[in-house]
Amino acid sequence: MLDLKIGFIGGGNMAASIIGGLIASGVPAENIWASDPSTESLSKLTKLGAIHAGKDNNAVINTVDVVVMAVKPQVMKTVANDIAAAAQKAKPLVISIAAGITSDSLNNWLGGKIAIVRCMPNTPALLQCGATALYANTSVSSIQRQQAEHILSAVGINLWVESEAQLDAVTALSGSGPAYFFLLMEAMQASGEAMGLSPEQSQKLTLQTALGAARMAVESDVDAAELRRRVTSPNGTTERAIGIFEQGGLRELVDRALTGAKIRSEELAQELDS
Ligand SMILES: NC(=O)C1=CN([C@@H]2O[C@H](COP(=O)(O)OP(=O)(O)OC[C@H]3O[C@@H](n4cnc5c(N)ncnc54)[C@H](O)[C@@H]3O)[C@@H](O)[C@H]2O)C=CC1
Ligand SMILES: O=C(O)[C@@H]1CCC=N1
């Protein structure tokens, strides 16, 4: 795996995170290629290590075993069409991290019969603390599955889904998910301030509470519901707050919000396919 030549088309935030994670996990920088028209993106990438960074997407395809497509969904079709001839010749494993682009669309834009792993990471990948779900089309071999896992595991945990449609649920849950926790943090901070704490105090207490709760939920051998019950003393303060959340329909609201995100993910796939 250390000899694998890995390329990135599009060298923005997500690509930089994955490249940073790969180098931190021991992948030699000289085995990494990246292309991006932006001089600013390229200079950020070269600061991560001595990777081969340039502006020619086709040069990357012609060189690597695995290419990560890390451009915005809206430009994916143009970029894929531009590299299709080279991809047909070189037949690399193509990993797409773009939201809403189906493996069928990308395969068609690349000229067909391409091994494609479509995945949905999330922004905590920036801290190598991401959660990624992966889906492989039928052209992907078991060795290529391992290569995709190797690359995405550099930025956090990953798991496979067997149906591509499940990626819409993943997008709604973990792709967009960090924003839901940030929203709750914003609301808790505002409430702390309204109750008389300074903005600094409220922010500090909110953020450490979020971090502590997340670590407990991940590291404990009991589930979130049990951890919640353990904070909730009979007739105490937590019970009052949880009761108000439940009466306000928090669970139903969360379900409606995530279902809305899933439907939007399905719509995006149709819009981007046209
Ligand atoms: N931000 C998020 O929460 C998540 C983003 N993604 C996906 O990751 C992908 C990349 O997103 P970011 O890194 O946040 O975007 P970004 O804007 O930071 O990076 C995109 C890069 O593509 C480059 N680019 C533009 N045209 C190009 C071309 N013709 N050839 C090569 N490179 C080109 C841009 O110069 C830029 O550096 C997107 O498809 C997005 O859907 C996936 C999961 C989560
Ligand atoms: O909001 C979005 O559409 C993208 C997909 C997952 C996170 N950001």
Give structural notes.
The chain has 274 residues and is of the alpha/beta class. It has 2 domains: 6-170, 3-Layer(aba) Sandwich (Rossmann fold), CATH 3.40.50.720; 177-268, ProC C-terminal domain-like fold (Orthogonal Bundle). It is built from 12 helices and 8 strands. Strands 3-2-1-4-5-6-7-8 form an 8-stranded mixed sheet, sandwiched between helices. Helix 6 links the parallel strand 7 and strand 8. The longest helix is centred in the last third of the chain and has 24 residues, at 250-273. The radius of gyration is 21 Å and the shape is elongated. The protein starts with 5 loop residues before the first strand and ends with a helix. The model has no long low-confidence stretch (mean pLDDT 95). The chain binds 1,4-dihydronicotinamide adenine dinucleotide (NAI) and (2S)-3,4-dihydro-2H-pyrrole-2-carboxylic acid (A1CAB). 1,4-dihydronicotinamide adenine dinucleotide binds at residues 9-15, 35-38, 41, 57, 70-73, 75, 79, 97-99, 120-123, 175. Belongs to the pyrroline-5-carboxylate reductase family. It catalyses: L-proline + NAD(+) = (S)-1-pyrroline-5-carboxylate + NADH + 2 H(+); L-proline + NADP(+) = (S)-1-pyrroline-5-carboxylate + NADPH + 2 H(+). Its EC number is 1.5.1.2.
Main attributes of the structure:
binds (2S)-3,4-dihydro-2H-pyrrole-2-carboxylic acid; single chain; ProC C-terminal domain-like fold; eight-stranded mixed sheet; binds 1,4-dihydronicotinamide adenine dinucleotide; alpha/beta; 274 residues; elongated; 12 helices; Rossmann fold
